Amino acid sequence: DAGITQSPRHKVTETGTPVTLRCHQTENHRYMYWYRQDPGHGLRLIHYSYGVKDTDKGEVSDGYSVSRSKTEDFLLTLESATSSQTSVYFCAISEWAIRNQPQHFGDGTRLSIL
Amino acid sequence: AQSVTQLDSHVSVSEGTPVLLRCNYSSSYSPSLFWYVQHPNKGLQLLLKYTSAATLVKGINGFEAEFKKSETSFHLTKPSAHMSDAAEYFCVVSEGRGSGGYQKVTFGTGTKLQVIP
Q: What percent of chain A is helix, strand and coil (3-state, nearest 5)?
């Protein structure tokens, strides 16, 4: 299995509080992705990174920010959490951004916002 | 634009009987296609991938899928279901580099497979 660790694995917090999720990889892959998984929607891309300090928005980026200061770490921040951000969040990595390159996933963070 | 449709949200089979999970895709290019499996409270694990070589692709745990361009389908099959196959399965299409320079992939909404003893 690809060396991807997400932390925390579970978190419960209140509306309006900041939340940071961490993804750590040991594969030295260039590309890292944050997705959210919601019933009936599959996985949707929030933000991605194509190198240290190089990030960009995905399809559902509103309310989220990211940072990547080291190759191995990709942080997802909810500046002021809302109940609509209750979801399961997955980090993924890939070595190249080409069509036949599969992405490899962490085990997810289950986030509940009350 | 690319899209993926998983035709069944739930499939129930008896242990030892064949499994068929259906996936149709739409793509403007020659895509790559993947199947992933997700067990409860776990991430997505790659089962198999099609990348324009052989149209019949074999994956892990006895699963295989056949790419049919004329039908725009990539159905997942297994001859005999095991209890351990109970999970959610995702069909994924990738056209490659999107406008932002990342690998644009689109996920289906998933099929939950139940295996009855």
A: 5, 55, 40
Of A50, A101, A108, nearest to B101 by CB-CB distance is A50
pLDDT digits (tens, 9 = 90+) for B54-86: 889 999 999 999 999 899 999 999 999 999 999
Distance CA A10, CA B33 (A): 31
Residue B62 backbone phi and psi in degrees, to 5: 80, 5
pLDDT for the residue numbered A39: 87
| A33: nearest CA partner in chain B | B102
- On chain A, the residues whose CB falls within 8 A of the CB of B46 are 102, 104
Domain of B46: which CATH number?
2.60.40.10
Topology classification of domain A4-113: Immunoglobulin-like (2.60.40)
